[in-house]
Write a structure and sequence with these properties.
Blueprint: E1 22-27, H1 43-51, E2 77-82, H2 90-106, E3 110-115, H3 121-126, E4 134-139, H4 159-164, E5 169-177, H5 185-194, E6 197-200, H6 201-207, H7 210-213, E7 221-227, H8 249-262, E8 264-271, H9 282-300
Parallel strand pairs: 1-2, 1-3, 3-8, 4-5, 4-7, 5-6, 7-8
Helix pairs in contact: 1-9, 8-9
């Protein structure tokens, strides 16, 4: 595990006898397609670096959260570094990501994963097998329902298809789709047959975040998986497939906060940030703020 720098300068562990409410860890690689390495391998490093300016300010008032990050209480989140991964070891990467997720859940903490491309989501969700049933709220420009691509069934085009096959996943809500995505008609049909709730970016713009939140049962355990291309490229340009008309920053944090009020946020991942495509570090800064909001929700829920 690599340990430095940590997100917000958070510790790697709390004082003896204290258990964290949330545990951050990174994974640079998931399952690569043949001959294609991820553009997001350094994303966790970029997000952590972008968070450093806010590190000394965690006791200041955060207007997104309505108070300081930890509510005036002691720090209750740790950053334990990165799971060791490599582009050539998809099966090993999946095993290690799932194992780390299970390890965090065993401490009753909420795991927060910094990817990596969207393929890291598959083992992350698989790690909740003994902590279900869960609902998945996906924020993404694409539905990621491909059964296979180039013979690979665990790549970044397939996380929601694989999630739909997990017995502990009770339901899926997918938010932010727009334009011409990666889905062919057969993928849309498969998602609808499963019962996935597809909420386009236009619906969020017109109806507000309740267009998505209303599909989540009250009190459900929810994992949010956030692909950075779900946001508009005006605020999140550093992605592999920018598409106009995405969610705003406020809509995105309102979705995260809405889960905290309506249900129970039990996991969060942020994936598909491409530091090489970023503009003025804007994407990394926005991504860091989204992670802060997720931590804030975890701290404030029961």
């Amino acid at each position: 595990m690599t340990l430095s720098p940590t997100f917000l300068g958070l510790p790697g562990r709390l004082a003896e006898g204290r258990l964290p409410r949330a545990v951050i860890f990174g994974a640079g690689h998931g399952t690569a397609y043949p001959g294609r390495d991820s553009l997001s391998t350094a994303a966790a490093v970029a997000v952590r670096a972008a968070s450093q300016g806010d590190g000394p300010l965690i006791e200041h008032w955060d207007f997104d959260l309505g108070g300081p990050l930890f509510g005036g209480g002691p720090v209750s989140c740790v950053d334990i570094g990165d799971v060791a991964t490599s582009a050539e070891d998809g099966a090993g990467n999946r095993a290690r990501i799932s194992a780390k997720t299970r390890e965090v859940l065993a401490t009753m903490a909420v795991p927060i994963l910094l990817g990596g491309d969207d393929s890291v989501v598959i083992p992350f969700l698989a790690g909740f097998v003994d902590h279900g049933p869960i609902w998945v709220l996906q924020i993404d420009a694409h539905i990621d329902w491909r059964d296979e691509l180039m013979g690979e069934r665990h790549g970044y085009s397939s996380p929601m298809r694989r999630a739909s096959e997990m017995g502990h996943v009770e339901g899926i809500v997918q938010v932010g789709m727009r334009g011409v995505g990666s889905a062919r008609p057969e993928e849309i049909e498969a998602a609808l047959r499963y019962g996935s709730h597809l909420v386009t970016a236009r619906e969020i713009h017109g109806q507000g975040v309740e267009a998505a939140l209303r599909h989540i049962p009250g009190g459900a355990k929810v994992v949010i998986t956030l692909d950075c291309d779900g946001l508009d490229p005006g605020i999140m340009p550093g992605v592999a497939a920018p598409s106009p008309g995405g969610l705003s920053y406020t809509e995105t944090i309102d979705l995260i906060a809405g889960i905290g009020r309506r249900a129970n946020l039990v996991g969060f991942d942020l994936v598909e940030l491409c530091p090489g495509a970023d503009v003025g570090n804007l994407s990394a800064l926005t991504a860091a703020r989204l992670v802060v909001n997720a931590i804030g929700v975890v701290v404030r829920q029961g």
